[in-house]
C-alpha cells in the first residue's frame, strides 16, 4: 500500500515538473525571441537588438551568489515568489511606446535572466525532495525534452503575435505562463527532508562559515573536491562552450558549402531540437545503467561526431549531424545536473547548483566570439577544434569511468544513508541551515527541503 502511494506521488510530481518546464519554457522562449525583434523594430539597429540576448545571459555569472541565497531561504516559496515578481516585471513592458523606452526592455531581460538562474538553482535543490534518486535522471531528461520541444513552437508563436499586435500580447503571454507555473508548484508533494548524519565515523561536523564570500565559494569548493561532480561539470562546460564556438561556422557552412540561404539554419536548429527530444527521452535509463560520467562522456563524443560531420558539404548529412548534436549536447547537461542533485548535501544544493550553472554556461560567452574569429582563415576550423577537444575529453572520461567502475546514480554505500526529519519545518519558512554539514557524505542518499 505504501509502495503504491509512493509511486503515485512520484508520477504526480513528475507530471507537474514536466508541465512546469513546458509552460515556463514556452513563455521564456517567446519573450526571448520577441525582445530582440522589438528592439530592432523600435531602433532599427541589429546591434542593439543583439544586446537583449546578452542581458538575458549576463546574470549567469551571478550563479554562486544566487545559489547562496537559495540555501538561505525556503526553496518552494522562493520559486513561487520569483515567478510572480518576474511576471509583474514582464507586464511593465506594456509601458513601452517608443525607442525612448528600450532601456525598459533591457532591464526586464536582465531581471528575467536573474530569475532563470535563481529558479534553476532552487529547482535543482527541490527536485531531490520530490523524487527518489533513481528517478532524477529520467525526470531531468523529460524536462529537457519539454524545454527543447517548446523551442520548435514558441518562436513562431512569439513572432506571429508580434507581427499581429506588437510586443504587448507576448508580454501578457509570458506573464501568464509565469503565473501558471507559480500556481503549479504548491501542488508538488514533498518528501521528508533528509539531512546528512553528523555522527558518521571519522566525519566530524565542520565549523560553519558565516562569512558571505565563504558561503558563496562553498559550492565551487564542493564541486572541486568531488571527482564525479567536477568531471561531469567540466564535460558539460566544454561541450556547451564548443556549441558556441561553432555558431559562426554553421552559418558559413550553410551559405558557402551547402549553398543555402541563411534561413536554412532554422532547419538545422529544428533537427537539433528533434535530437534533443529523442535524447531526453532515453537519457534517464542510460544514467541508471551507466552513471553520470559515462553518459556525459557519451554525450560529448556524440557532439564531436555530429560537429565534424557538419563539415560535409551535403545537405542531408548536415541535417542528420544536427540531430546527432541535438542528442549529445543535452546529455552532458543532464548528466551534470543529475549528479549534483544525487551527490550534494541538502545544505549546499543551492550553492553547488548555482556555481555549476555559471561554470556550464558562462564559457559560451567567450567561445562564441572566438569562433567568429576562427572562421576567418577557414570556416571549418572551429568545427575541427570543437570536435577534437570534445572527442578527447570524452574518451579520457570514458577511460577514467571504466577504471573506476562507476556505479549508477541510485547505488549508494549503506553506511552513508541519511536520517529523515519532518519537511514541514522547511515549508514553514525555516532555511535549510546552509552553513552546516558540508561533510564528504555527499555520496549518501541525500535529499533537499523545499
From TrEMBL:
Membrane topology, from the record: Multi-pass membrane protein
Transmembrane segments: 15-40, 46-66, 78-96, 102-119, 126-146, 166-188, 233-254, 260-282, 294-311, 317-340, 352-375, 381-398
Coiled-coil intervals: none
Chaperone listed as a keyword: no
Gene3D superfamilies xrefs: MFS general substrate transporter like domains
Keyword field contains Transmembrane: yes
Region feature Disordered, mapped onto this chain: 402-450
Record's keyword terms, sorted: Cell membrane, Membrane, Transmembrane, Transmembrane helix
Protein's name according to its UniProt entry: MFS transporter
Organism of derivation: Plantactinospora endophytica
